[in-house]
Amino acid sequence: MTIVAASGFAGAAAISSTTDRLPRDLWILDASTQADAVERYLKACEPIFAVELHEPPERFYNRTDGYNLSGALFGRCETVAQRFNRTWAHVAADPTDTVQAILQIKGGWSGLYDGRIVEGVPGSIRFVDMARPFDLTTDAFETLNLVFPRALLGDQSLLHIHGLVVPPDSVDADLIASQMRGLWDVIDRMSEREGATAVASAITLVSGILAARAGDPTEDVRPSSRRVLAAARALIDEHLADADLTPDALARRLNVSRSLLYQAFEPVGGVAAFTRARRLDRAFDALIAQGPAGQSLAEVAYAHGFRSDAHFSRAFRARFEIQPGRLRQLAAQGAAAGLSIVSRPKDVLAWLKAL
Length: 355
Prior knowledge:
By secondary structure, the chain is of the alpha+beta class. The protein contains twelve helices and twelve strands. A seven-stranded antiparallel sheet has the order 1-3-4-11-6-9-12, with helices on both faces. Strands 2-5-10-7-8 form a five-stranded antiparallel sheet.
């Protein structure tokens, strides 16, 4: 029950604004009119968590309307009863580091957060740390969701907020709910500047309430592995062009043992596989962005850490089922605009990565 995918905020069949207003993403799925509605929904959720629907497939629906506020995402979701299970593997594969504040408008829920059973009712506010797993079961629901980078919390960024619930009969819940409902009432008329102002105001309020209600920082279930994985991923992204960035080199640069490095990357398929995938993903984007006047395929390969263009072409085709040269041709013809390197809804997940 988060704004990413499981709340449907992942616009495979989205509409986007083309005015000076905030970018908008509307995603509507209805099994009564779309035979593949369930399949599309589950596929969109797959990178974020495993989903188990608690309604017959023919009764499935999902409507999510979301906006990119250039620093946060804000959306409204309505969908059926289901279970969301975010595992350590999902966390490890997620390049974002975000927190969510969720206002429950309709429906009750119960979830497992850091070993604690937590429940909520309409009017409650729930905080979710997307760097931690959870297992949530919910009735058919409607929510308002604010997603923002953890760094915006400042001094409160290390507080234990995962699964924190602000009860509906509290002043704090009324304050946050009023802020979120008010923002939703005017968001379709907001400019980017006004959106940035609204985000700053909302985060200030949330930070103050978290400072009063959240617990002290707690040790992660896998503190060493999590920190190593985060540091290693940042280092890999910074040095994708370095063909000598091997697992051994990574371990030396991070000053950790090889066994700890391998343990940290186990949920995402291993160090070498992760590094190769990141290089190929970046090369994919480069081929589309550069067009026919860009670097040669060999230059693209070398710029992304491959020692030979032949090896690059084989690996590229294995990952994307298309030759890099053919992708470039499609981009030149304007036919690559809808391609996605991981076959996922492109708008909202791209927004999240940019936060």
